[in-house]
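Let's sit down with a protein and look at its sequence and fold side by side. Go ahead whenever you are ready, and we will take it from there.
>
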Amino acid sequence: MLGDDAPLLMLLRSGVVEWPLRLRLALFSPQRLGRGSAAELVKRMLRPESKEAFRELAEQYHSAPGELKLFTVSSGTPPATLNLVLARMLDARPIVNMTPSLLPRRLFALNIIPVHDDKRPARAAAQSAAKHGNVVTTPLALGYFDAPAAHLLARTICQEHALDPQGRYLGLAIGGPSKSAPWDRELVLRALELVLAIARQQASRLLVTTSRRTPQWCREWLQRNYIGQPEVPYFLDAAADPLNPLPAFYDLARAMLITEDSFSMICEAVHAGHQPLLLPVSGGKRAGKLSRALASLVTRGLAQRLDVRRSGSALINLPAARTLPANALYDELRTEVRTRLGLR
């Protein structure tokens, strides 16, 4: 997004405990930290992935003081603390994906956050953005769909499993229970039965993959009820095969069906241009970030929900493949980020 084809990657050293430093930065501005002290902290707590690239940056930094446009970028909580320290050492502008706990957003030049993490009322959020301009919200987790790589994987899978690249396929991605999305076994099995009925009713075939989180009872049920069915020409058990076939699914499938516990897989499908159909995994209304995230996607028309109470015949109108251009939301975000940072 920033136009650097080969960014320098800094890694946290093993055993780093950064929360006292995070608390210090939360209480006092990073500007209160001397640049020499920041350099000592960086040396002690970070290491460059490439020493040669680090030396090259140092040479450019010293030979052209003030001429480089420097940004430090991090995602997640522990790296964000050192992001601020590294930015202080280099006099760079820090950017964070998902504002971490304790650290105020005002400390960063830009905060890229999912919309469900912005708890401010809409009016207050708009006023803050107009005043500070350092918060950009996105409906998805950051991602980018590599269409050529996906097409190459799809071609390989088609050759190895005798699939038709122009076939009528539905992609089914099955996640697993988590703290934010516990599974109701009966509901999940009902949804999987309905998916098979939809494939039969629509004369489509299913490309199926589980994940490392899929419980054993679900994998065993799938093996008994899906494998060998003419509607299931491709089935991958992630517990036995490390291949991630999802990029190929996004390329081949006319529609994606994904269990609603996996926000990452849902976002990947949207980045690829799909409007995924979400399979319910737990009954009743649920609160929390995941619930807000899914509700936001459905409200914006970026995803649909499967109603297991309806019959397969009532679900003729599955979303068409690639209802959006691939990476449309990424491109929008890229434009906004570069505008906020004054990059043309």
